[in-house]
Amino acid sequence: MSTTDRTARPRLATLVTVGVSAIVLLTVLSLLVLVDHFAIDYAEREAGQRLQQLSWQMRDALNRVIQKATGDVALLTALPQIRDAQSPAETRKVLESLQKTFPDYAWIGMANPDGTVYAATQGLLEGVDVSGRDWFKGGQDKLYAGDFHPAVLLGKKLPQSSDPWRFVDAAGPVQRADGSYRGVLCVHMSWGWARRLAHNILAPADKQYSADIFVVRGDGTVVLGPKGMEEQKIVNSSLALSQAGATGSLKETWGDERRYLTGYSLSGQKGDPATLSWSVLVRQPEDLALAGARALERQILLLGAVLGVVLALAAAVVARRLTTPLNALSKNIEQRLSMPANAADAAPPELVPVDSYHEVQVLSRALAELLRNEEVHLGTLRALNEKLETTVAERTREIARKALQLERALAQEQSTQQLLQERAAELRAILDNAHDAFIALDPGGVVLDWNRQAERLLGWSRAEVIGQPLGAMVLPPLLRRAYERDMRQLAEAGAGTESVLNRRIELTLHNREGKELSVEISLAYVPRSSGHLFIAFLHDISERRSLFASMEAMALRDTLTGLPNRRALMQTLDEALQRANRLRQSCAVFFLDLDRFKQVNDRYGHEEGDELLRQFAERVRQTVRKTDTVGRLAGDEFIVILEMLHSDDDAQETADKLRPVLQQPFVLKTATVMLGASIGIAIHHPDDPADIEMLLGRADRAMYVNKQQGAQQRARR
Length: 717
Ligand SMILES: Nc1nc2c(ncn2[C@@H]2O[C@H](COP(=O)(O)OP(=O)(O)OP(=O)(O)O)[C@@H](O)[C@H]2O)c(=O)[nH]1
Fold this sequence. Notes:
Layout (H helix, E strand, L loop, with lengths): L2 H6 L3 H66 L2 H4 L4 H14 L3 E7 L5 E4 L13 H5 L5 E7 L15 E10 L5 E10 L1 H11 L3 H4 L2 E5 L5 E3 L12 H7 L4 E6 L5 E8 L12 E7 H4 L1 H47 L20 H76 L3 E5 L5 E4 L1 H7 L3 H4 L4 H5 L2 H17 L10 E7 L5 E11 L6 E8 L1 H14 L10 H18 L2 E9 L2 H8 L1 H18 L5 E6 L2 E9 L2 H16 L2 E2 L4 E2 L3 E8 L7 H25 L1
Antiparallel strand pairs: 1-2, 1-5, 3-4, 4-5, 6-7, 6-10, 8-9, 9-10, 11-12, 11-15, 13-14, 14-15, 16-18, 16-21, 17-18, 19-20
Helix pairs in contact: 2-6, 2-10, 18-19, 19-20
The structure holds guanosine-5'-triphosphate.
The site of guanosine-5'-triphosphate (GTP) has 15 residues, from strand 16, helix 18 and helix 19.
């Protein structure tokens, strides 16, 4: 943290002073709010009640005066001097005596039923017609109170005064002793009494309250009020409320645009003509009514300001006392911090303890201890840092060396990778151009690779077979189970099994069209980290097989006659002997040798001899049963094998059937020749030893004997 930063922050002394001042300010403001809310509200209510009470006092006083006037009228009309008056003088006397009791009775008079004044105080208006006056009309039937009005007739007759004459009337009917109507008696009260009432009511508190009393007639005309407002009309809320019969107080603005608190009430009894309904309003300016509360508010504000200043000063002094030792402590620490870094080796000066109040002493000691510990830790940290830097330098060198190795290894890896890719491409080319079909399988027998030769051989394209199981596609159904079993065993045993791996196996497969193909398979196992492989090379051996079969057939055939040759005859004879023993039925062997065949060769040539041998073979084959075997043993020697003999005679019968057939002439190209053939018969019985040489030897010997006998017979002929 820079020095600028530190000085930019407010000081503790400032914070404490401002804090205390703010608390005092808040307290004063709160008090002002409370005063405004409660004290002024209270003062308002108090003033309202006071004004309301003044209004009531005035109302009651007015009621009492009107009541007294109507009471006096009732009293007069009951007097015999009035009821049965004999002369105006007598009546006048009674009236004047009443006038003396209440000076505000300005005029008292009695009118005849026709409205002419019969008698009156001081004889005023006697004989004058008052039948049109309200009091005369209202007072004919019952007691009547006449509202405030100016003097009409009496104004000029009464003595002049500073104020013009204003009256309130009280009137009532006068009845004779016999109950007949005599006239109306009326009292005119001058308005001065009302002014005195108001003055008396307000006088005790006038200085204190500066209140005004208003008596307002029903039409809104002020009949009693401050100078200048009398006989003026007013309109305000308190008037309306009082006219509605309500009583109370309120705050309102009057015609002079000032705010007043006003107490209001209504005099008289509604519907009673002997009373007068006047609104009695007592008003006081709001500022005067609330003057006390406002003064309290000002005092609190002043007191708060003084208290704030005093407390702020006190707080400043206390804060200064608190911060001085802290500043000293800070200065010590800053001095230590400002020591240059290279001076770390030299022992730094101890922190000077600050001798002040308890907390600062504790803080000072704690900081000194902290600094000592920091020195120790700094020393340890420096040592650790040096060690760490050494270690980091070593590690950096090590990392650089490893990075170099890694770079070389990566380069090597890249070149190996490239080599591998080239090798893979080469391999692909080799496989695609190989003469043999190449198939790679996973251990489950699913095709992983398939070269062009495999496409040509089996008919499926590479894309069609990748991912397909090979066995289901190319193996005949009978072989599939064996194939799947073998694949499982191979997958389990891997390279360890030698059953079919690395050997050539011949198999018959189906191509895509279902045609059988003979193939030679060489299967190899390739162990890999990512799933082992079986690779198979398939070579089409169909042609070789058919060639071999035809060669084998040729090896067993006599090329001249097409009959089985000696080798084939040996195999057939061996099988026949086995069958005879097994089926318990005899078989026979004929040994046939042409007689004098050599002479044909010698006379007609070797080719004619060959033709004769072919015709002879065909003639023998046609003569014996199809199930019998005819073969050429060598030269002009033929063998016939007869199986399933019922008896030895069956063989003799066949020989007898052959002899004449063979003696028939043979038509050759250049000549027709007649030859015979000597037949030697040897019979093999089921219990005889299965010795073909011995059996052939016996047949040969028998043939020889027969040939000799035939030669002798020909010589004798
Ligand atoms: N044309 C021809 N002659 C053959 C063939 N094989 C053997 N020969 C001849 O057949 C003759 C057989 O000899 P021999 O059995 O002594 O002659 P042979 O005249 O029948 O005598 P005998 O049996 O005693 O009557 C020989 O002259 C052979 O050269 C052959 O394939 N074709």
